[in-house]
Amino acid sequence: MADYHFVYKDVEGASTEWEDLQRKYGNLPPKPPVFKPDPFTPPAQDQDSANPKDKSWIDNKTEEELEDLEDDDLDDDRFLQEYRRKRLSEMKQMVKIAKFGSIIPISGSDFVREVSQAPSDVWVVVILYKDGYPECGVLMQCLEELAKMYPATKFVRIISTDCIPKYPDCNLPTLLVYNNGAVKANYVGLHTFGRRCTPEGVALVLCQSDPVLNDGQSEGEASREAVLEGVRRRFIERVVKQHENNDDDGNTSD
């Protein structure tokens, strides 16, 4: 019969009482520390991967982040891929639209650069005015409101004689409408915009035949129709509100 030799191994790091006594008296080196693996910690989860990838997740991204985002990052979700492209297009369009938003003061030397050489997709409304003329102030207030409502349209103001030497004061205020370097329309005098000059009345005149005012959602004829529809709605709301105020005043007097 073959001889079998067994080698017994105790638990790693274990020692006998004798070895412990020898170490106590310094006859043996200290016992090496028992190996202990580092405690398990789950890998750090990326913030984006922690959040569900849905429409709100995309809406919280900046334009630059959407540019860097690849379709592969959307887990082959065709809807989210298409929504990302749509959202990116909307953000670029908003940046394109939000150009102006106020009436820009210019001098004669600025006219060519600011008006004649404006990009072909920008409509420019120029008011020729002079300080001290009430009619100019009324039209200016209307244009200030329209400039805020339609920031894709460029509004500028220039003193009449700085633009056209010896321009008659009796023609003030005058509006010039430019597009692609050419004059598309001109309106002389406040009476051009009706008996009572309002932002809605000025908008209706400006958009009679051309998409001068951009609604920020569409272009060309569609934009013009959308602006006109919005103007008509606000005009009706204004009239209704005036009648309600008049009725309230009448009831108070009774």
Short description:
The protein is 44% helix and 11% strand.
Model description:
This protein has 254 residues and is of the alpha/beta class. It is built from ten helices and five strands. The protein has helices at residues 17-24, 47-50, 55-59, 63-68, 78-97, 111-116, 134-149, 160-163, 199-206, 220-253, and strands spanning 103-105, 123-129, 154-159, 174-179, 182-188. The chain has a five-stranded mixed beta sheet. Helix 7 links the parallel strand 2 (123-129) and strand 3 (154-159). The longest helix has 34 residues, at 220-253. The radius of gyration is 38 Å and the shape is elongated. One of its GO terms (biological process) is protein folding.
Query: What global shape is seen?
Result: elongated
Largest sheet: 5 strands, mixed
The number of strands is: 5
Strand order in the sheet with the most strands: 1-3-2-4-5
Number of helices: 10
For the residues shown, what is the average pLDDT?
78
Strand content: 5-15%
Question: Which segments are poorly predicted (pLDDT under 50) over 5 or more consecutive residues?
Answer: none
Distance between the termini: 130 Å
Pfam families: Phosducin
Family: Belongs to the phosducin family.
Domain Phosducin: 56-189
Biased composition (Basic and acidic residues): 51-60
